[in-house]
Amino acid sequence: RKYGSQLRVYHFHQTDRVKGLLWRDAIHTPLLGGLIVNRWLNRQSLAVIGDRRRKTTRPVVYCCTHIGRYDVEMAFEAIRSHCWIFMGDVSDLYDTFDGFILGVNGMIGLETDDADDRYVAKETAIRLLKQGGSLLIYPEGAWNVTPNQPVMRLYPGAVEMALRTGAEIVPVAIEQD
Q1: How far apart are CA 44 and CA 88, in angstroms?
Q2: Do 126 and 165 contact (CB within 8 A), yes or no?
Q3: Is 95 left (phi over 0), alpha (psi -120 to 50) or beta?
Q4: Distance (Å, rounded) from C-alpha 29 to C-alpha 80?
């Protein structure tokens, strides 16, 4: 965990740009197709209700509720447009296929208990948005498994990122049945 945090901090200070935006955009369609096939093989369904997004040339911060295991896959498929994911506690993803795929897609990872890593992740996300990339973030910061609270307390980082970059915020709510 500590090594990954230190490596992200080191790379952050080596450049002022997020690398790989163009090639990640180019491979987005096949990755999205893989998600659809995987969902179909797992006999899962997805229904998008009330998508009221407008076309925009600005970057977008997709702020998504977080209720369970398949949130990331379902959110990517519902959004359809390429976006990077902002993800905490990434040490669980080291040396896994899921971690590899998220890295290929574009992932800004951090360890939530490391203040330097949190700062670097937020500033990296701001760099991404300034370069025109979009971001998927779960501002609740954890799975919301409370039965009577649709949204938990939100961390304000997503709003700060949008304000500092001129990005639009698009709320995304997920329900699993």
Answers
A1: 26
A2: yes
A3: left
A4: 9
